[in-house]
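Quick start: read one record
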Amino acid sequence: MFRAILPTIAGILLFACGSNEDSLVPVENSTAKLTTIRVVSLSPGMTATMVALGVSDRLVGRTPWCEVSTDVPIVGSLLDLNAEALVMAHPTVILLQPPAQGEVGGLADLAATHKWHVERFRIDSLADVQAMLENLPKVLCDPSIENDCSKLQERSQILQSELTKALQPIPNANRASQTLVLLVSSESVDAMGFGKGSYIGDALDRMGVTNALLRSGYPSLGAEDLAKLDPETVIVISQRSAGAIEQIAQIMPHSALYSIHAPELLQPGGGMITGLIKLREALTQACEVRANNSPTSKETVTP
């Protein structure tokens, strides 16, 4: 997903995966000692999905941005892989997102030599996320454990149902008019937008909200870009960056500004559902405010 901007938001991704206290699916981990499935995840989104599915105990390796357990060793990232640590983890499965610039050299050879199964999932768009939620349990389940595959599939279906519920059309969504969703990670006004084809852009479409950003993907947006867009509603996914939010309010004085603390939205997959609910609440409030004839009101919410 964040292929083009990965270096610039690596710090943000520290928040992007790990145990989700707000998980919508309270499940217990299966007994890892009984399974032969040993997973190295090079994708924070897929790591978070494993947590939501209740199989994080099958992880034997992770990226620096996946804080699941200190017992799970870090094997580097897809762009900076520690081959020795990867081999020492003895995985049976490697999970990764195919990057635009190609996979790290040697991974395919290592996988072939050690007979690891490499499973690649794109999770750029909402359709990608839904396909991953449907198919990842098939990769993670152990047929040698009674009912393991059926239980994982059941958990997956619960997650997919909660995702569908979070994405239902918002009543009177057109009242939010042109809406811009931004990620702000520092006190700088520079932000990242969610355009067409991004999973957040697709989520806005499903909720019936018009995305003010017509560009595709995840473009970086500076002060001049924001001023030109001048949307009716701005939703800021904040990393507690009060200074940047104040600057955005000054740059777009006619926009209704809403701030939500939703790091879950940075982990496309089973971990992002709680974040989508927060986004939905902010959008619903924006619609209600405009329905009350307050088109220039400033509101800040932090669900």
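Confidence is low (pLDDT under 50) at residues 1-28, 295-300.
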